[in-house]
Amino acid sequence: MAGAAFIDLDRTLLSGASGPAISAALRAAKLVPASVPGESLLYKVFNTVGETLPSMLLARQGATAMKGKSRRIVREAVATAIPELTALVQPFARAAIEQHRANGDKVVLATTSPFDFVEEFARSVGFDDVIATRYEVDSGGLYTGELDGRFVWSGGKLASVRDWCAASDINIADCAAYTDSIYDSPLLEAVGKPHAVNPDARLQVLATARRWPVMHFDVSPGVGKVPVIGTELQRLALNFSRPEFIPFAKFTITGTENIPTSGPAILVGNHRSYFDV
Fold it and tell me: Is residue 252 part of a domain?
C-alpha cells in the first residue's frame, strides 16, 4: 500500500539552515530590520549542532515579528529566495524524493518553518504537500501576530502529520520520515520507516539504539561518516596519511621518462591508495 514520505527542511533536505536566505529576502523587501544582533552566530550554531531549545523559542516568536505585515507581500518577497534555497537541496535528497514517487508515495515537506515562507519553494522542488507552522491572517490579509493552529515542532509536528494522514486516508505506519533532529523523535517513533539524516548528537545515539537507518543526503548511500562531526571516514583518514607518519615506506617509480617534459599531461594511477596524495 502506498504511503507518504515526510521530509524535514533544515539540515535534512537542505545542507544547512533556510533562515539566512529567507531573512535576506525579507530584509531586501524591508519587512524585517536591516540587522539582528546575533543572527549570524545563531545560524552558525544551528548548522553545527542542530536545533536547540533556545533556537526554537525564538522561532516560536516569529509570528509576532510578522504582525501587521501583508501576507501577499511576504510571500512575494520570500519567493525571491527560491533559487538560493534550491541550490541548498542535497543531491541524494532528490534521489530519495524520486524513489518515493516511483513507489507511489506522496512526498510531504514537514517543517517548523512558516508555511508562507516555504510553500512555493516546496512545490518548485516537487513536494506534493507541505505541513508547516501557519501564521494567522486577518480579513485584510495582514498577519495578526498569532499562530493559526499548532506550532509544528516535536509533538506538534507529529500531531500535524497524524491529521494529514487521517485527511489523506493514509496509515502512518506505511509512511517514512527523514529528519536530523532529536526533537522529531516522536514522528520517527510513529512512522513505519524512520530515517535519521545528518543526525544531531542525541538523535545519533537514539538511532543507533533503535537501529534506525542513519544517512547523509550529501553523499552516496553506504558512504560512512563520523557520527555528529559529519566528516567522511576516508577524509578523516586522509589527515593521518601524511608521509611523516609512515617514515619507512619506500616506493620505486619507473617509467617517468614517458612523462612529457613540456605541455600539459594527465597521469592516471592503476590503483587507489592514500599514498597517491
Answer: no
